[in-house]
Amino acid sequence: MAAQNWSSRFPSNTLVITCPGGLEKPLRTELDRGGYDVVRTVSGAVHIRGGAEEMIRANLELRTAGRVLVPVAWGRAANADQLYRLARSYRWGDLIRPTATIAVNVTAFPGSPGDARFCALRIKDGVVDVQRTACGRRSSVDRKRPDYRIVAHFDDDRVTLSLDGSGRPLHERGYRREAGEAPLRENLAAGLLMLAGWDGRRALLDPFCGSGTIAIEAAMIALDRAPGSVGRSYAFEKWPWIDREEVSAIRELVTSETTAGAGAVPVVAADIDAEITALARRNAERAGVADAITFVTQDFFTTTPADVPPGSIVTNPPFGERLDIGDPAGLYRRIAGSAGDEYSDWDVNVLVPESIRRDDARPGAHVYNGGIACTLARL
Ligand SMILES: C[S@@+](CC[C@H](N)C(=O)[O-])C[C@H]1O[C@@H](n2cnc3c(N)ncnc32)[C@H](O)[C@@H]1O
Fold first, then answer.
1. Do residues 9 and 72 make contact, with C-beta atoms less than 8 angstroms apart?
2. Domains and CATH numbers, the chain
3. What Cα–Cα distance (Å) separates residue 77 from each residue in 113, 119, 120, 318?
4. Residues near ligand 1 with C-beta < 6 Å?
């Protein structure tokens, strides 16, 4: 068997950071503030220049990101043979040892050649054929927890093959082991706070807190705690050509950064259900921010604002199609009524499906929550 010369070089000088639809702007702001070299913003992603350091840092510190992808091969592929040839054209043998497992995911494919599974199969064939030629052996496929997940993104007949540096999606911070009904993704919760213009310096109230995601993300922002400080694993940690010392040094830097005086702002999480507020507190404990949040069990419609100076409400009331609550439009009107009365001093931001808000002309940012088109309505 030919001796392998594992590449010590990072295989790309650009990275693609994906995000939930509608969070491109907050992601871009995070990247600009973090000093990343942004190339362009597209729907659902921002492209940056960067290598290993930026990939590690982005995984650990970006609040609104979905995944950090490392593009390695790209070209035109109008049919399955061209797709196979594109996959064969890259030196996978330098990157992926045959003892490592792989999986191929096809993310978007308007105009792609064949269905997603067939595309994935042809790409996988190309990758393992390169390995076989290079060293006589090939990786086996592990769809659930591969060492390397190769992501194919189609844009008409142009395709990009990337390594997924994140592994589990980045919204899975690791603190939410229990969830109420219809929980928000953690990166969407962080994005809503940013879209609402909440800066971590005024009080934050989520009166329909469920599993506490918005309040926990708010406390993490106020305390200047990186999402990566909760402690989870990332796909890049399994790649032998990533320097472990570099990972430790960046992890140390990102997770120890805390601005002096951070965290003094009140963050209040309320829900009508005592079991749910207890659950939210346990999630906050796992995130290490329980002391920064006041948990209250109360009905939004029969209680007055918490005893804190007015600030922002950012909330996700139970409108969702996944919850069975009679009259969502009526609920929206009642919340709008309270916003105008008891909460008139507050900046009220409510995540509402566009189907419910049909006739309401109030402006708001558009986002997708679990595939449902929503607006963050400012009431
Ligand atoms: C869509 S869930 C919130 C999900 C949350 N954002 C999360 O990430 O888990 C809505 C929550 O509103 C609560 N709720 C329903 N009616 C309420 C009311 N009148 N006052 C306060 N909370 C209420 C429910 O118990 C539920 O936990």
1. no
2. 14-164 (3.30.2130.30), 186-226+259-378 (3.40.50.150)
3. 7, 10, 13, 44
4. 179-184, 207-208, 210-211, 213-214, 271-273, 276, 299-301, 316-318, 320
pTM over 0.85: yes
Q: How far apart are CA 362 and CA 379, in angstroms?
A: 7
Contacts of 72 (CB under 8 A, 6+ apart): 11, 12, 90, 95, 161, 162, 163
- Give the pLDDT of the chain (379 residues) as one tens digit per residue: 333 444 458 999 999 999 999 999 999 999 999 999 999 999 999 999 999 999 999 999 999 999 999 999 999 988 888 899 999 999 999 899 999 999 999 876 666 566 788 889 999 999 999 999 998 999 999 999 999 999 999 887 889 999 999 999 999 999 998 877 789 999 999 999 999 999 899 999 999 999 999 999 999 999 999 999 998 999 999 999 999 999 999 999 998 856 555 667 999 999 999 999 999 999 999 999 999 999 999 999 988 766 788 999 999 999 865 545 568 888 888 898 888 888 999 999 999 998 887 666 677 899 999 889 999 999 9
Ligand 1 centroid to residue 319 C-alpha, Å: 9
Report the atom number in ligand 1 closest to the C-alpha of 184.
8
- Which of 208, 325, 335, 343 to mutate to test ligand 1, by most ligand atoms within 8 A of the CB atom? 208
